[in-house]
Amino acid sequence: MTNKSSTTTNVLILTSDAGSGHRSAASAIEHALRTHGVSTVIANPAHHPLAPHTLIEAERFYLDVVHRAPDQYALAHTLTDAPGLDLFLEYSLAGALRKSLAALVLTHQPDVVVSVYPLFTRIISSMFRQKSRPRLMTVVTDLGNVHRAWFNQADDCVAVPTLTVRDKALKCGIDIAKVIHTGLPINPAFGRQMVDKATLRHQLGWDPRLPTLVLLSGGAGIGPVAQMAHALDARAQTHQLVIVAGRNQALAAQLRAHQWSNRTHVYDFVPLVDVVHAADVVASKAGGLTVSECLAAGKPLVFYGDAPGQEEGNREYVVSHGAGLIASDAQSFAEYATTLLSSNPLRHSMAYSARQLGMPDASVAVATEVERLLSISTARVTSRLSKLRIPQPRP
């Protein structure tokens, strides 16, 4: 590998903060690369000083739309997932991010750019000539119904989490030689339970004897979490309920103030590795990263709430392989959760299916492919790139 100055990096990972999954995937890749001594930087081009401030608002708006109008989001996802219409998305985003993406490439001079979000590598490849740009890699972070905007024929590599997504990549014109099936990059610790479940529960302050369901609300703490929890608590069966409210402090306060019939533990935003390993069943929305973490840990899943766009594909992938159930409302959620908590054979069967789908070492597989690109990379940001006139941000 060619030595570079201290002001440059080997790998630039581009992410988004529309939800927490993209950044978590980026962090997993970064950790795997740094373990091998690869200089790596994570950046969100929407947060760069040269990007319009409205893009940060757009990330927040995304979460609001998914929560309040999931059907509308799902319709938009479907309508734009057609040949040609994805170009409209590309051109719209390029107008807002062209300057910030160019500035990030010029500043860090990476040998490889890895994107865990759609369209970023498309914009870069449209700005720079093949011989004067870094090698490009996209890592897809959903499991089934992915948007065609993920796929850029100019990429040097596309890492896909499932064979379903591989098939979509091929339909979108990606050369099969460029597509690798790695899984979705997560913290590998989800696939390695270091101590037994009873010990974990004791360390967490839970009752080690009670069947336990962990109810996740995502990083933002959105969705009908309280309704699901109350419906399950109303069931006569004795169980233990663990609720993670994420960054939603109002939800956490509401849950802590409630008088629960069963033993219940409420958390804010908390590292999930031990929490998931200590569970018998996990209930969650269908975000790609959370689903992949639970599969790697071998946990049966109960999905609740509407699943717009890509989330619908995530849950259908899991359910079709026997590792999850879909609850249409609070009462069906309570019924499915109770059945799983009381039926060891069913729970163990679904846990086995989950482990078969789980790919806990996906981040290592992605890092290995990045290192391959590094080893063959002769691309450099040349003087032609320096001629780009990039205005400085206003003070």
Structure description:
The chain is of the alpha/beta class and 395 residues long. The protein contains 16 helices and 12 strands. The strands form 2 sheets. Strands 2-1-3-4-5-6 form a 6-stranded parallel beta sheet, with helices on both faces. A 6-stranded parallel beta sheet has the order 9-8-7-10-11-12, sandwiched between helices.
TL;DR?
The protein has 395 residues and is of the alpha/beta class. It is built from 16 helices and twelve strands. Helix 1 packs across helix 15, helix 2 (54-68) packs across helix 3 (70-80) and helix 8 packs across helix 13.
Number of helical regions:
16
Helical residue percent?
40-55%
Cα distance spanning the termini: 38 Å
Backbone structural class: alpha/beta
Q: What is the overall silhouette? A: globular
Largest sheet: 6 strands, parallel
Helix/strand order, N-terminal first: EHEHHHEHEEHEHEHEHEHEHEHEHHHH
Strand content: 5-15%
Q: pLDDT under 50 segments (min length 5)? A: 1-7, 378-389
> Which CATH architecture of the largest domain?
3-Layer(aba) Sandwich
Radius of gyration: 22 Å
CATH hierarchy class name of the largest domain: Alpha Beta
Average pLDDT reading: 89
Number of E-state strands: 12
As for the CATH topology of the largest domain, it is: Rossmann fold
How are the strands of the largest sheet arranged?
A: 2-1-3-4-5-6
CATH superfamily of the largest domain: Glycogen Phosphorylase B
